Amino acid sequence: MKTSLGVVPRKNPPFGGQLSRFTAFAVAFSLVFLHSTTAFSFDLTERVKEFTLKNGMKVLFLERKGAPIFAAHMVFNVGSVDEAAGRTGAAHMLEHMLFKGTRRIGTLDWEKEKPLLEKVDLLGDQLDREIRNGADGKKIEDMKSELAKAQEEQRKFVVSESYSKIYSAEGGVGHNAGTSKDTTLYMISLPSNKLELWAKLEADRLENPVLREYYSEREVVLEELRRSYENNADGKLYERFLATSFIAHPYGNPIIGWERDISRLPLSDVNKFLKDWYVPNNAVIAIVGDLDFDELKSVITKYFGPIPARPLPDRLISEEPDQGGERRVNVEFDASPTMMMGFHKPVAPNDDDYVFSVIDSILSHGRTGRFDKNVVRQRKVALSVGTFTAPGDRYPNMFVVSGEPRPPHTTEDVEKAVWEELERLKKEPVSREELDKVINNMESDFIHGLASHYGMARLLSNYQIIRGDWREALREMDKIRAVSPEDIQRVAVKYFVKSNSTTATLVKKK
Length: 510
Description:
It is globular and about 70 Å long. It is α+β, with helices and mostly antiparallel strands. α3 packs across α11, α4 packs antiparallel against α5 (137-155) and α7 (195-207) runs parallel beside α12. The chain is 48% helix and 15% strand. A hairpin with a 6-residue loop joins β9 (382-390) and β10 (397-405). The strands form 2 sheets. It has a 6-stranded mixed sheet, sandwiched between helices. The chain has 3 domains: 70-106 and 160-304, Cytochrome Bc1 Complex, Chain A, domain 1; 107-158; 327-507, Cytochrome Bc1 Complex, Chain A, domain 1 (2-Layer Sandwich), CATH 3.30.830. The chain is built from 19 helices and 11 strands. The chain has helices spanning 24-33, 37-47, 90-97, 110-132, 137-155, 162-169, 195-207, 214-230, 233-245, 259-263, 267-277, 293-304, 351-364, 370-378, 411-427, 432-449, 453-467, 472-481, 485-495, and strands spanning 49-52, 58-63, 69-76, 173-179, 184-191, 283-289, 327-332, 338-345, 382-390, 397-405, 501-507.
């Protein structure tokens, strides 16, 4: 459920999450702060309180009076990019497994369930090994039957959806989690008097997780993969686009993992991923809402403080080499033709990243964007053309353009029209009037995106995890305001070239 960290909520790739939903509160919030982002930045800098537990867990808090509720985001600085080769899907699989409970949650009787779970895990591991070693079909079927019987016995003690039931009964909404390339997030919104309940449940989930029902959940994830990628045109196109764009860096792998890796992913690997990365010194908690800071600090220290820190593994990530030439891939699918074109680019704190944020808004900020105005409505070449940044923010990523042709036009026509708009950025300086309008819209979107408790907690936690300081979100707006027409031309000339482009096209099967 990843969205870009950029100041403006950028257009999202397939299965990349959704933009913040505006509420009535957004109107009041924008009336207070929209007149001065500088004043807003100062106000936020003064109001956000933070502390770090002795085990290294960072906590950010913004008090907002009003409705007696709070939003809590707990983010771990680990995602699919940190998986070992041949073990893709571990980060997403672990996210699923951490909803299965602990020794206290999700079981009717842990002491009786424990030996049954150990038997299931042993049989499942043996079955995986036999499959990897190419055992004959009869042996595999017999082992699957034995595993199914053991699972049935263990399930008698399992309480499904325990967290959802507990939180819902206590007024919780939006209980969810999400894995991205860079991070893994767990979130919830609760009444203010349920802070201690949240801390107790989440600290227990971090310290005492039980990865029950692993082998059945693995099948659920495989079905999710087939539904979202194998049987989905947009998902399949995006998957192949990234795999073609990145040949060394793990950003080229799908977040959910490759099907063959998932089907053989050992439980021991998922457990190792848990022990390596799910530690307090690799996590940030952001809480926004109607709470007292002293009480919050006391409660969080009480429940999360005793969890010991552990050394983190080295992040050995292959660096993506220079592209050195145009790349293309055709993806056969029984669906309407679509094209996706991307360009490798740096990420912040490189100044060019902020220029790309402005270019993104110039090209596709609603009906005022050049793509919609010129390619969709005036020339009627495409049904839609949009841009987004993908697939992550921790390492150099891609600026992506996607478009769907309007019949009888083809993807080649859309691609040609896109290149014409990109060339225009190189040759014609953006007028000061257009640039000022774009930047004003970006400032407005930034303020609106923080109107909800959820949006603010997301901003605080993401920037703290990825950039190392939540204040970078405010400094980023200063960088945006400093972008000039000359910067836009320079960046367009440097990056929008054929030798830095990857184009994926969805074509109908012959």
